[in-house]
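User: Run a structure prediction on this.
Assistant: Running it now.
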Amino acid sequence: MPPRSNPTARQARLGAELRKLREASGLPARAVGEFLGGNQATVSHIEAGLWGVSAERVRRLAAFYSADDQELVDALCAMTEARGKGWWEEYRGVLPASFLDIAELENHASFLRSIRMLHVPGILQTSDYARELIGSGVLGLPEREVAARVEHRIRRREIFRRAAPPKFDAFIHEAALQMRYCSSDVMRSQLELLEETAGWPSVHIRVIPFDTRITGSVHSVLYAGGPIPQLDTVQLDNAFDGNFLDAEDQLNEYRSLFRTIDEIALDANESLKYIHRIAQEL
């Protein structure tokens, strides 16, 4: 079986978690490779997400490592079983891999939290607003790629059409509501969509007003809850790429950041009034 050339962020995460279990056991990769009937390269490929691994093999490895966190082992096994190709795979080779990873991350998240300082969260953007934002963010993109990025961004919203959608807490700074990336008409439509989505059962929009004192460390971020806290993921994105963080100390930093933002942001009702007022002023 040839190794994958470009594992997804989810596949890489599964491999990284297996590596953590092995390192905690103190076993060298060579010994584990022999246990699996292979060699050190076998383990390296699995831990890098280059080779797929079955739930049965995950349980064998967990037993070999004497891993006693059954909740974690069960969650890792569930990750191996979610092998169906999602809609985002239609864009592989068309869009950067990190865009597909974001869609996959949102698709499997138990909950989502987002802080956006300068623009509306991608998953809540209108097509016109997204087009203006994408076009101004990466100059010289071919029209076909701009169109693909817009379409992909809008399709991410499909998670909210499920019978049990993930809870999404969107903290949006007033700057993002006032920035003029587009015409007044396009911006008004975007704010009206925010008003609409704020009424969806799983979507909670909170505004951070200009006059709110915040720490200088606040920046745009997406926090995706895993099936257990150990498998949470933080995604930092920009117009060109995306970074995924999952070390426990990093996760704790962002959990603390969201607790701080939760304390200073307007409540949902006041946020809706705020958005409506800005829309009416356009």
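The mean pLDDT is 92.
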